[in-house]
Structure formats: structure tokens, C-alpha cells
Amino acid sequence: MKLNIALLAGDGIGPEVIDQAVKVSNAIAKKFNHEINWTPALTGAAAIDAVGEPYPDETHAICEAADAVLFGAIGHPRFDNDPSAKVRPEQGLLKMRQKLGLFANVRPTFTFPSLIDKSPLKRERIEGTDLIILRELTGGIYFGERGRKDNGDTAFDTCTYTRAEVQRLAKKGFELAMTRSKKLCCVDKANVLESSRLWRETVQAMEKEYPEVEVSYEFVDAVAMRLVQWPNSYDVMITENLFGDILTDEASVISGSMGLMPSASVGEKAKLYEPIHGSYPQAAGKDIANPLATVLSAAMLFEDFKLVDEAQAIRDVVNKSLAEGIVTEDLSEGGKAYKTSEVGDWLAENI
Amino acid sequence: MKLNIALLAGDGIGPEVIDQAVKVSNAIAKKFNHEINWTPALTGAAAIDAVGEPYPDETHAICEAADAVLFGAIGHPRFDNDPSAKVRPEQGLLKMRQKLGLFANVRPTFTFPSLIDKSPLKRERIEGTDLIILRELTGGIYFGERGRKDNGDTAFDTCTYTRAEVQRLAKKGFELAMTRSKKLCCVDKANVLESSRLWRETVQAMEKEYPEVEVSYEFVDAVAMRLVQWPNSYDVMITENLFGDILTDEASVISGSMGLMPSASVGEKAKLYEPIHGSYPQAAGKDIANPLATVLSAAMLFEDFKLVDEAQAIRDVVNKSLAEGIVTEDLSEGGKAYKTSEVGDWLAENI
Ligand SMILES: CC(C)[C@H](C(=O)O)[C@@H](O)C(=O)O
Ligand SMILES: CC(C)[C@H](C(=O)O)[C@@H](O)C(=O)O
């Protein structure tokens, strides 16, 4: 297979972790006889510095032309705590999601047996957790009308959803549930919000198309609780953009393997893969960041192109590196701490 | 002191737990020479059944005339999963908050040494946690314009805040921080939402009035993570209505003492006290529900009337009941499970 992949390394540790995912993907390509063409492009603070724009048109053109995008991380501390900053790295992220139509963010949370003791939760609470949150990514309050009135003394944001937006996300949820344990949880705040009532009634109407899927409906506040209490009671969850933002992050820390969690964002055509961790500016340039989440994001990429053995080979070598302690300092626990680049080299060699 | 307290028992286990808080409060009144007049009033599903309205005008008049309101719980399963229900218990709650002007919801999360092992978190993560979330309760997306367009295929909700709304909530936050460790965390989503940018700039402008308070600003998704990872790193937090809904519930489960957590909702004049747990319909009428959260809510009530010794006496007797195992089945762990009413009697006798 021939794959054209746009490479958006971004800010902070982005470039370093992306490098390792490229090494590993190239090793996969060699072993399984694929051809990968990588096209780097600017994004985030790096793009603001270079061309004054966090998601330049040229970058968009490269992403659109590619079969998939591999993304590092964006964000820089100099933009934080400055509500008046005119251009922000995050705007690039939102623009990219919208222009590429990446309406579904796929966020798995699972555990690695060897890392379970790193979880803030007790072992019996977290063991067996294997859930996926599908977060709607191009609608809701992130993209609704917003502004000021009364000389700036009143601010408003609008959360809008259409039935079609809910349907396409929910469809992915039902389909994913069919490949897993056939349990789907729709997370909303239908006791207060009209948009949530639209979500709930739309999903309810779709239930008959998937008679095998058992659907439950839960309020977002209740889910925020149960995710901490019994995360292993969830399987596939679907939710709107803002709730998804909060819940996927909450879910990411419960496994104790936040530095290892990959993600995908997909649209009708576009596909983007990225680690869920941020740009971690304190570690940038030090060759100490954990590259495994980005490497596992590459595995999700291969899998979405039906290259299942390739994806499995990556997961296997990651498990092997964990078992043999070929890990960066965040996981080394008194053992040897390998450099980011050393972990990448080891993974590529052991493919 | 003479106190007129409106008694809104509500649904499910509400009446049972309220009864115990009344017993304990009456014992306090006797011991400290106060006079309490209790005026019961209807709310929730109980009020819908009786008069077709979850927060009837008569109930509002009783609450307005009272010095404070003691509230049980509302909600009934027959209203869940029915997006089309015209009248819902929750509407009563929202109407009550708005009509009484209860703009600040005060939600402490703390640990009881004897219950720490009930926390889903590891001991070292939860030990020492003692935080208070101040949730704005009468603004934001809960009360903004909402509706449908396009023949019902588009739904919208509006989140609106004014500077004055942010200021009055933030003022409470700063004042509370001054009585504690002088740390205040403002939780928002200022990298996306205009209303959050108003929150952040308003709080930033107030910093100079409270030079001793160290203020931090965090995004709601990051807080959802850190609350699970290092809850003991927080002290006083302020946030808007919807974020507060999610985060206060998330915080409530980390201590392992959810059934014991009290809360207050206050306005310029009105004051309301309630357990944070729900109406727990499965347990209704069985005399098995844990009354301690409601009893501790009564302690918050006394404290807000500067009756500090009275509040402390309640907390002391609650601690004593925990130490001596005079507890309901949720806490009895193989020991004797006392009835709701027995726990209330014991507390009242031991005041
Ligand atoms: C940076 C921010 C705009 C973004 C979001 O809220 O979507 C981030 O938190 C995420 O979840 O990818
Ligand atoms: C019942 C519901 C409307 C309410 C809310 O969301 O405010 C509840 O969850 C709460 O937190 O008191």
C-alpha cells in the first residue's frame, strides 16, 4: 500500500515524539512492504512564529491532499493567561478540525497491566477498563456564535446542534459498539439543555436500526462520577463537544497511562492521529518525553486503513518495550531512563 | 436566637433524611437555647403530584419568609428518559434557585479518616483533601435562551454571563480564600469560550483588591484531570454553572464519603442547605438511607448564622457516630447496620 501522510509536529515535545512515530512507521512499511510519503507542515505556535497563523492555508492543502495526518501537539505557555491574545495556537486546532471536517474524536482509555499501579485509582477500580469515548468535534459551543454586548460587560456563547450532526456521530458510536460489547452510553444533560434533548431523542430514534445494541442515557454529571468510581463499567460512549472535552481528559488520567494514550479524529474523508498529551513545554528539546502515545496513534492510523497486522505489530513492540523496561524517565521507576530517541530506535529495530 | 426554617423534604429518601436533621437541630436548639420554627413545604415530584408544579408559589412564599431553607432531595425515575415530559422535578430546582437568587453553590469536599479506604482513589492521593468549589448557580447555559429551529431539527442553548454576575461569585471566592489558605483557582475554558474570557478578565481585575490571595487559572478539562490525580492540591475554586455541575459531582466521589457531603446555596439574602446526594428512589421509605449529609448541611446552616459552637457540636457528634459505628448500611461493613431513624435518634441524644 502507498500512504501519503501529512506530518504536523507542532510545538513543545511534538517534534520529538513525532520523530519516533515516523521511525516506527517506516520500520513497519519496510517489513510489510508499504510505501509511506511523509510531508511535513507547520502548525501551532511554530506556525504563528513562521507565518502569523496557527493553521496556514498551505498546511491545510497538505492535510487535504494526504491520506492521513499524524499530529504531535500544540500550545505554548506564552499564550496562556492572556485573554487578549489575538492569535492562539488553539485556534489553529479548531480551524483544522472544522476545515478538515474531523467530526468524530475517538478516545480510547485502556490499561497496561504493568502500569496499573500508576493509576490514581485503586487496582480493583481500574482493572479491566477498556472504554472509548466518541466526542463530537466540529459542533456545539466550540463553533456557535459568541461575542460581547453592553460595552463588553456581557459575554455569550451559543451551543447549537443539528439532528444530522448528532446522527453521523451516533452512527459511528453504534457501529463501534457492534464491533465490541454492543453497549453504548449517550452522555448528555437532557434535564436542562435543549441541545441535549435533541441528542437524546435522535439517538433514541436510531436504536431500532441497531436492535442488538443496548443503549443507556446518562447525565454528564453522573458520568463524571462513575468514570472515577467504576470506569470498567463503561464501553462505548458518545457525547457532544464540550462534555467530551472534559470527560475524555478525566478518563485519560484514570488508567495511569496518560502518556501512552493515542487518539484519532476522523471525518467523512480526513483522518488525523495524535497523542492525547499536550505540548509539555518544560520537556521540549530535552529528548526525555515519552513517545509511546504517538507511536500508538500511528497504530490507530494503520488499523483505520485495514492494516490490522501492522497495527498489532506496533502494539506488540510497545508492550515488549514496557515489559523489558525500555522506557523514558516517566516510567523508569529507578531503572534506567532511556531517551525519547533511544526508545524510538529500539522500537523500530524490534519491529 | 430565633430561626424560621422552611423544610423542603422533596422526593425519595428526602423526607427520611430531613427528619433526622430536624431531630439533631432541635437537640442543638435545646442545648444552646435557641428557638427553631419549622415550616414544611412541597417541592419536586411530590409537589407535581399534589399541585402540578415542582416549586409552587406557596412554597416560594414560605422560603422567602424563612431565615433559611433545609432541603432534602428531588427527582423521580418516572421523569427520566422522557425528553418530552412537560413538567419535571428539576425545573422546580432551577426555578427555586432563580427565584430565591441562590447564586452561589458552596460545595466542600473533605475526607473522614475512618472512611478514606472507601475512596476509589489510593490513600496517598486523597489524604488531606479539603477543598471547596463555589459554583455559580443562577446564570450561564442553565438560564440562557434556548429552543429549536428548522422544524425541530436544530437545537440551541445560550451561555450568557455579565461582569456583575462574575464579580459577586468571585467576591465570595476571594473572601472564602481569605479565611482559608489564601489560594483561589478560577476554572474556565478561556481558550475557547467568550464567557470564560469574561470570567477570567473579571477575576484578574479583582486580584488587586485581595493582594494576599494567590490566584491561579485553569482550564476545566485540566481540572477534571487534576481533581482525580491530586485533589489535595486544590483549596477554593470558583467556576460557572455547568462546569460547576460536572466538577462538584466529580469531586464528590473522590473522598469516598459522598453520602456525607453537605452543601449550601446562598444569595444576597436567601440561604439553602442540602445534602449533595440525590433522591435515591430505590431506598425510599426503607429507613436505610444515610442521613449524615443532611445533618452536616444543618451544621453549615448554623455556621452561616455565626453559631459556630452549634455547628461544631453537630460535626463532633457525627464524628463520634462514625467512630462508634452508629452508621447506616452503606457504612456498616459487616458491623451492625442502623436504621436512618436510629442514627438520627442517637445523634440527637448525644448532642
Ligand atoms: C486546546 C483546546 C481548544 C482543545 C479543546 O478543548 O478541544 C483541547 O483541550 C482538546 O481537547 O483537544
Ligand atoms: C437536577 C439538575 C438540574 C441539577 C443541576 O444540574 O444543577 C443537579 O445536577 C445539581 O447539580 O443540583
How does this model look, in words?
Two copies of one chain form a homodimer. With 351 residues, chain A is of the alpha/beta class. Chain A has two domains: 1-102 and 267-351, Isopropylmalate Dehydrogenase; 112-136 and 162-257, Rossmann fold (3-Layer(aba) Sandwich), CATH 3.40.50. Helices cover 42% and strands 21% of the residues of chain A. Chain A has 13 helices and twelve strands. Chain A has helices at residues 14-32, 44-51, 57-65, 89-100, 123-126, 163-179, 194-206, 220-229, 241-254, 292-304, 308-323, 329-332, 340-349, and strands at residues 2-10, 35-40, 68-73, 104-110, 130-136, 146-149, 154-162, 183-188, 214-219, 236-239, 262-266, 271-275. Chain A has a ten-stranded mixed sheet, with helices on both faces. A two-stranded antiparallel ribbon of chain A has the order 6-7. In chain A, α1 (14-32) links the parallel β1 (2-10) and β2 (35-40). In chain A, α1 crosses α10 (292-304), α2 (44-51) packs across α4 and α8 (220-229) packs parallel to α9 (241-254). The two termini of chain A are 18 Å apart. At the A-B interface, β6, β7, α7, α8 and α9 of A face β6, β7, α7, α8 and α9 of B. One 3-isopropylmalic acid (IPM) sits between chains A (90, 93-94, 245) and B (191-192, 221). Chains A, B: Substrate binds at residues 97, 107, 135, 221. Chains A, B: Pathway: Amino-acid biosynthesis; L-leucine biosynthesis; L-leucine from 3-methyl-2-oxobutanoate: step 3/4. Chains A, B: The record marks 142, 189 as: Important for catalysis.
Concise structural overview:
Chains A, B: It catalyses: (2R,3S)-3-isopropylmalate + NAD(+) = 4-methyl-2-oxopentanoate + CO2 + NADH. By secondary structure, chain A is α/β, with parallel strands linked by helices.
